[in-house]
Amino acid sequence: AITKIGYDHTEILGDTLDKIAAEKAGIIKEGCAVVNYPEQPAEAMGPILGAAAETNTVIITPEMDDIRLLRGKRLENRIDYGGYKANLQFPGAHQANHAAMAVEIALALWREYHYEIPDEAIETGLRDAKMPARIEVMRRHPLLLLDGCHNADGTAALAATLKEAGYDGNLVAVLGLLKDKDHSKMLENLAPCFEKVFTVTPDSPRAMTAEELEEEAKYHMDAEAAPSVAKAIRLAVDYADENNLAGVVVCGSLYLAAQARPLLLKEAEK
Q1: Distances (CA, A) of 49 to 16, 38, 61, 204, 222
Q2: Which of 8, 29, 161, 189 has the fewest C-beta atoms lying within 10 Å of its C-beta?
């Protein structure tokens, strides 16, 4: 399975989408089934199709017209893909694309390799699959949300999900980024979502300091450095309450997500 090709780990994979895709396409071997992301960037498709041709494999790509987003509550992700229905535990339209890939993978395992996977098992898998810090809703009212988005594509997906849910501009953020990421683009993506952001230093030697991030974030939004993740969460929750905002989002790094999640679980219990 080849999910969406984006700009990440460019120091290893290459600095263009076709170079990155060529590295990713190395997973394609003769005799395997290949399931491809349904909205793959055009620049990435050349290397993927080339690798498939060289290995005599067929690319299976879900049809976008077959992916239906059903009406649900805020940040719910009810989908119907070719008759397979589920309420995903992952918000965001991009996760509907991933779910469609998962269905195609299961069907390929049945069709090509004769694994017996009942339709009920596919729907159960879609419904039960979960992973911490993937636009994870810790509390709905007021909102507490955690996302380990750690690159430009991740922040774009988070911003689109918040906008679609009607939270655009009505939130406070706790934000921490790493120095080797495209933080300018990440901040540009996130800026419309938040009235204010409290910056922190993630627990990583590659982290931007809270003060460095504050200086850069000020070009995009109201930003204030916090001395710790715990203090930033407290400041953000209080700011949202005092200013009648919808809630708090913690995002920008998986390192930050690991630090913040235990604190958010305690906050959500209050």
Answers
A1: 17, 14, 12, 38, 45
A2: 29
Query: CB–CB of 40/5 below 8 Å?
Result: yes
Looking up tokens 């879609």 gives: 126
CA–CA separation, 84 and 173 (whole Å) = 35
**Backbone dihedral region of 88: left (phi > 0), alpha (psi from -120 to 50 degrees) or beta?**
beta
Asked whether 230 and 196 are in contact (CB, 8 A), the reply is: no
Structure tokens at 143: 């909102």
Distance in angstroms (rounded) separating the CA atoms of residues 145 and 153: 18
| Contacts of 177 by beta carbon, 8 Å cutoff, 6+ apart | 183, 186, 202, 207, 208, 213, 252, 253
> Global pTM?
0.91
pLDDT, tens only, 183-218: 999 999 999 999 999 999 999 999 999 999 999 999
The dihedrals phi and psi of 142, each to the nearest 5 degrees, come to -70, 160
Contact predicate 150/252, CB 8 Å: yes
